[in-house]
Design goal:
The chain has 170 residues and is mainly α. It contains seven helices and no strands. Helix 3 (60-72) runs antiparallel to helix 4 and helix 6 (110-129) runs antiparallel to helix 7. It is elongated.
Length: 170
């Protein structure tokens, strides 16, 4: 009699576990780039930008566009990688450093983002005295970098490294 009770108890547990397993269903992984635009549009746009960077690795504008596309897709790590893997010739071009600072902010690295924005301001200040088309320091870039650097200085002074993780402190 004890064996039949044990078998019934085991069968009941296995049935319950099986039912829970079937009821939970299958959860699919979310695509890395599936936010914002329809996934096919965004994927195709990013694929084209990746092809442009692969074809012209020293084109700062192509790298900036790809990094911005990754930021728009909420993938700041990919944007940081695009900038950090840039050839030396374009690594510290102002427009690329500006998008790099934004990616660093999204990753929660305020001090590094401040350093990148200060490089943008240094390059653009030097360009005012000796214009150079390689950095493309337009008025919007200078204004945006100045504003972002001021905000980052305050965050760093307050000791807030990641404003997204600690919104009350920022």
């Amino acid at each position: 009699m004890k064996v039949s009770v044990l078998r019934a108890y085991s069968a009941g547990i296995l049935t319950a576990v099986g039912f829970l397993w079937l009821a939970s269903g299958v959860e699919r992984e979310h695509p890395v780039l599936g936010l914002g635009l329809a996934p096919t549009e965004q994927t195709e746009a990013v694929r084209k930008l990746e092809g442009d960077v692969a074809a012209h690795p020293e084109d700062a504008h192509a790298r900036r566009d790809l990094a911005q596309a990754y930021l728009d897709a909420r993938s700041p790590g990919l944007a940081v990688r695009v900038v950090e893997s840039s050839p030396t010739a374009v690594r510290h071009v102002a427009i690329l450093d500006h998008v790099y600072a934004r990616a660093l902010i999204d990753e929660g690295r305020s001090a590094d983002a401040l350093a990148a924005e200060e490089r943008v301001l240094d390059v653009c200040s030097a360009e005012e005295s000796a214009p150079d088309s390689t950095h493309d320091c337009q008025t919007w870039l200078l204004v945006s970098a100045t504003r972002r650097a001021d905000i980052l200085k305050e965050l760093v002074a307050l000791g807030v490294e990641d404003a997204n993780a600690h919104p009350e402190a920022s």
